[in-house]
Amino acid sequence: MGIAFFSLQALDLEKMIRKNKVVQARLLYILLAVALGYGVSSFFLSYLLAAQNLPSF
Q1: Which residue windows are transmembrane per the record (predicted)?
Q2: Which of 21, 22, 23, 25 is nearest to 33 (CA)?
């Protein structure tokens, strides 16, 4: 999740956020980082499981 949070900081989301909504913007960053981290980790775990289930010759 830390890498996802770090990568989200590269985006300029301040243009889409209303003025005086700093707390909500920070919460949005955190939720996006959690969702992105969950998605990426689920992908890699599924990939690893599928690779382990391949038949060996």
Answers
A1: 27-50
A2: 25
What whole-number distance in Å separates Cα of residue 51 and Cα of residue 3? Answer: 24
Q: Distance between CA atoms of 27 and 19, rounded to whole angstroms? A: 15
Cα distance between residue 30 and residue 26, in whole Å: 6
Mean pLDDT of all residues in 15-34: 83
Domain count, the chain: 1
The stretch 26-44 carries a mean pLDDT of 90
Q: Does residue 23 sit within a domain? A: yes
| Nearest-angstrom CA–CA distance, 32 and 27 | 8
Instruction: Give the integer Cα–Cα distance in Å for 32 and 26.
Output: 10
Domain that holds residue 35: 2-11+18-52
